[in-house]
Amino acid sequence: MTAATRDLFERHHACWESRDPDRIAGLHTADSVFHLHSGQEPVRGQAAIREAAGRNTPTSTG
């Protein structure tokens, strides 16, 4: 794995681990299409991704 790939992975993982919809949405561009793993329709764009992340991401690990 290259250093650039590792950095991308680390940033992506940290955003999801934080469970912060703003950080998760920040991983995406205005024209991103995000496919949820819950069987829901894909969402498009940062605002929709932020909303979906807020609905589908638990706020605590316990």
Automatic annotation (TrEMBL):
Residues of the SnoaL-like domain: 10-52
Stated name of the protein: SnoaL-like domain-containing protein
Organism (species): Streptomyces melanosporofaciens
